[in-house]
Amino acid sequence: MEKYEKLAKIGEGSYGVVFKCRNKTSGQVVAIKKFVESEDDPVVKKIALREIRMLKQLKHANLVNLIEVFRRKRKMHLVFEYCDHTLLNELERNPNGVADGVIKSVLWQTLQALNFCHKHNCIHRDVKPENILITKQGIIKICDFGFARILRKLIPRHQSIFKSNQFFHGISIPEPEEMETLEEKFSDVHPVALNFMKECLKMNPDDRLTCAQLLESPYFDSFQEDQIKRKARNEGRNRRRQQGCSTLLILKSDIVDFGPFFLEFGD
Q: Is 126 an annotated catalytic residue?
């Protein structure tokens, strides 16, 4: 930790504590996860190494960036890019509900990240508001890959072992006494948003839409239109800025060219 200045404690979990720190040389603000137990603990070591391995393999704009890893006093330290707050903070700040535009932006970016993971046979297994980070610019970063897994197809022998495992015999899910439909619970929600929720919450995974399919949902049509308009505005501003710079360069060149004329005229 000698190269980092500790600024504040920003989070704590079962296996580690997270600090906001500053690199003393570059001034870069980062988040450092310090595992509370030493690497001699097999569980901690397994979780830490799994997270390191996952984040080294998976690089995406909506996944938190792992900058470096170091050990101090036999404890693992993971250095990440710093994000301003979490989705949980956003929800707590807005107890009456988050703006529709924010909801769509968070969902869109989260699905982009998860779709990328799934394409690489990775399942996160711990997606929740406190593990969805948000930068000052509104960019979503999914973090905490300690429980993630790389999926591989089970060979017949493994399938047989799974089916014959006594721990899976007789398992049943308790039924609630009263059932409330999504229509009853969210009576004021737009039908397109309601249908989106239904597609996410189907009990049978085979019937549930994938992340890639959810990204094609009509629910995101207005969000995508806004993105296109925003991109066009930004490109227009950049063009005008470049044109302004070009004009200044031309004017400066003209003044230099006419310099002798001005001097002669002044005489």
A: yes
